[in-house]
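re: that chain from earlier
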Amino acid sequence: MWRALPLATLVALMASCSDGATSLRSGGGGGSSGDDGSSSGAPGSSGSAPGSSGSSTNPGGGSAAEICVATINEYRKTMGLAPYARWAEAEACSDGQAKSDGDKNAPHGAFGKCQEQGQNECPGFAGTPEKMITKCLEMMWGEGPGGGHYEAMASTRYTKVACGFATTAKGSVWSVQNFR
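^ sequence. v structure.
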């Protein structure tokens, strides 16, 4: 079950970079519940991300990009929202943004280069792209209404999402989720 994090911890986890781009710092686990005290996870999941029960299976299986889009859409489904289309044409560009940002240790440093209108970023996570993305998206969704990451994931302004991934020379994984 989600518990509200102390403000200092929450601030340390989040970094807002611009109106259309938000990043989430890795290192902590958790999030916050909505004002009504309800869990922000999927119904029946005890606040867990869809498919993040600790097992090795991921929603939709397959590539990290497929897992990313499927996970976002599982969260959207809990709110009765239409799924985002997978924006496959922008995935190579999104991979390049993740690589550039990771190499420079600069979240959203390449924002806008893929003609996206909004962007979330998971900077410097441990693990494989297929494993880290569900944890990062769970943290973002856990912000609830008013949180920039949550708002991009739950937006009706966007219709598609491209997920990009890159692993730095030091082994950390960066991921961008570009919305349009």
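The chain is about 30% helix and 20% strand.
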